[in-house]
Input
Amino acid sequence: MKIRFHRPLFLVVSIIGMLLALSLQMKTGRQHEPVGFFFWDYWLDTLKHLGGFILIGFAYFAGIFRGREVSFGAYVRTIWPVMAFGALTETAQIWIPTRSCNFFDLLANTLGPLLGYLIVLLLTPKSGADSA
Output
């Protein structure tokens, strides 16, 4: 997969994803009844958070990364803004009356970019790999 060719597209997708996540997580409306921990709806919502932030993390890292080799150092230098964004959007819901901050959503919002990075790592060919 040639990431360099698609870098601007990945960056645009990540920015659109962040704006969409922000608008969905900060929207107000009628108060919803809290869903119990042992119900499928609770975990479905958390999976939505995880999936969204995996895509945002993947697109952001693929769009912003300019190095030759994908490494953990490159991850730390480039993906932390997405992790911080996910944590901030979830914790900001404390002050919105019709929203609630959920620990597992917070975890999904911060671990999703890590999983997106791992996907990029799996899709990127190793530059110094021997073909023995």
In short: The mean pLDDT is 76. DSSP finds four helices and no strands in the chain.
